[in-house]
Amino acid sequence: MKRPLQALLLALTGTGLLHTALLTDTYLRYVKAGLRPALIVSGAVLLLLGLAAAVTRDRRHTADGTGYGHDHTGTPRVAWPLFLPALSLLLHPPPALGAYTAARADTKPVAVQKGFAPLPATSPLPLTLTDFTKRVQQDRGRAVEHRTVRLTGFVTPAAEGDGWYLTRIVFSCCAADSQTVKVRVHGSEAPPADTWLEVTGTWHPRGTLGTRTAEAALDAGDVRPVAPPVNAYTDDLPLRPSEER
Questions:
Q1: Distance, CA of 164 to chain centre
Q2: What is the rounded distance in angstroms from the CA atom of residue 34 to the CA atom of residue 178?
Q3: Which residues 6+ apart lie within 8 Å of 233 measured at CB?
């Protein structure tokens, strides 16, 4: 690749990273929030390298009017697609992971928890999908039995149209290591895939509560659309709780 195009590619990539990490929340589609400083530093370094390469070329061109040392061959065709990722960061960022990914991913194994604190008396009780699953499958005290809980996630249709799941995709570091947490929803027609919902209901009795035989599932009493959270790739409670009802 010719040196001017190398400089342009570096500058575009750096500018795209800086735009994504500084001016938008789009970077959260790709990495955890804690990696934002690393993206900013990387973008700044790439932009400076691109500018430095362009300045160096201009100085060489000025000092050597004969063009000695310059590559006048054409740019290989294979090099041009390298500009697409750089331009996409600025003009059309890739879509967020959602139901398509979740439907084809294995469910994240839930870590074993040896002890459970008493649940607050709040009703409905806000829980993450992970906490609900742990209570259903590991809490020998059966604390969620007959309790009305409130879960938040997006819709993933089940295989062959047989119902649907409330889902969260969780990043350990970035999109490449994402894992899925799902809770089956009963008693409600499947909304469109990727719709973010707040579902209120009670545990759907299947299996023995407090053991691995219990299904992480909910009998839905109330299903309401909600805005996606700013950071959609955690299994946290919403940063801005829903309006009290």
A1: 20
A2: 15
A3: 28, 29, 32, 97, 168, 169, 170, 171, 175, 178
* Inter-residue contact 99 to 154 (CB < 8 Å): yes
d(Cα 102, Cα 167) in Å, to the nearest integer? 8
Q: Average pLDDT of each block of 10 consecutive residues along the chain (245 residues)?
A: 73 82 79 82 85 72 53 57 72 80 82 90 95 95 96 91 90 82 94 95 95 95 91 78 42
Residue-wise DSSP of 226-243: -PPPSS-SS-PPPSSPPP
Q: Count Cβ atoms below 10 Å from residue 216 Cβ, excluding itself.
A: 24
- Taking the alpha carbons of 72, 78, 81, 83 in that order, is the dihedral positive or negative? negative
SS3 191: coil
**Class of residue 20 by CB neighbours under 10 A (exposed 0-12, middle 13-18, buried 19+):** buried
* Sign of the four-CA dihedral 211, 213, 214, 216: positive
Question: Cβ(155)–Cβ(166) under 8 Å?
Answer: yes
* Angstrom distance (rounded) from CA 232 to CA 238: 9
pTM: 0.73
